[in-house]
Amino acid sequence: MKTKAAVLGYPNSNNLGDFIQSIAASQWIGSKEVLSIDRDQLHRYNGPKARLLMNGWFMEEPQNWPPSDQIIPLFISFHLNPTAEKGMLSPQGIRYFIMNEPIGCRDLYTQNTLRNHGIQTYFSGCLTLSLKRENFIKKDQERKGILVISPLERLLPQQDTSKKGGLKRLFISTLQLIKQPLKRSKYSKAIKILEAYLSQTDEEIQYCSQLMDPEAHTEKERMDAALAQLKGIAKAKLVVSSRIHSALPAVAFGTPVLFLSDGLEHPNQKSRLQGMESFFISTTSQELENKQFEIPEPKTISKDILDRFKKEIRAFLKE
Asked: Is the N-terminal amide bond of 181 cis, ω within 30° of 0?
């Protein structure tokens, strides 16, 4: 039986960046009917044999690793978050990686972590870097305005979505509650600095969020919103964001990016940025204070990265 080409699905995700990564993977398949498999339930998949592009952040439920035998994986643009390492790097998990090496790693943190466990790797960058501007706007469309996507959101108090109980959870929840006033103050100050910085330009400024409540919006609505966000990025003169998957598509489209790293100091977040400095300018709100507004030169993507995407994915889907 012929295998089906598949991408990762995110039925419960509130982050449009996840859907943007699925769009980036789907473009390589070129079929209207692309199989979508829930990233956090890969172990449960029992459909036809599927060739799955494994790009993105892994994973919310690390105890569900490794995937079903019905999945043939291509590890490309793979990020192993510190929160999931213990669950995914069990002896069984390590064997699974070795069976499917080399692993294309989205960031240097993931690459070094896997190498330390004897797994062959290479730095792939993110698959969203292969998105094409002409697929989202009319040819030669003029760039207009500044698009500000989810700036500085990680400075805000984070909602505790864990269903686990116990004294440790209670302690963490209480600590978060105590920190709320300070976090809101930091966020308010950072936003005021950003607004003052952007007030120096006459360009039209549009604000939007990369987050969308899955309980209020269907998976299709969130996918449509991700497509609309990509169109907005393709049209903009400048993208300002604290979200990697707003910044990297902008790089792919040749759109200048200003990436705000406030709130990304924790190792779980910092790990995702290792190696990203070659793709976009990263700064903090504090560094923008009293600074003259300017649109940075867009970064160029290494031809080697794009060529390897083409080589690895086309060979994988032809097998």
From this structure: no
- Three-class DSSP category at 260: strand
Judgement on whether residues 193 and 274 belong to the same structural domain of the protein: yes
Query: Same domain for 118 and 139?
Result: no
Answer whether 0.85 is exceeded by the pTM: yes
Token pair 């044999």 is found at 49
Residues 6+ apart with CB under 8 A from 85: 62, 113
**What are 52-79's pLDDT values in tens digits?**
999 999 988 999 999 999 999 999 999 9
Residue 79's φ and ψ, nearest 5 degrees, are -120, 120
Q: Please name the residue that has the structure tokens 């959870």.
A: 169
Q: Which residues contact 101 (CB under 8 A, 6 or more apart)?
A: 75, 119, 120, 121
Residues 30 and 157 in one domain: no
Cβ atoms within 10 Å of 123's Cβ, excluding its own: 17
Q: Side chain identity at 251, as an amino acid letter?
A: V
193-220 confidence digits (pLDDT tens):
999 999 999 999 999 999 999 999 999 9
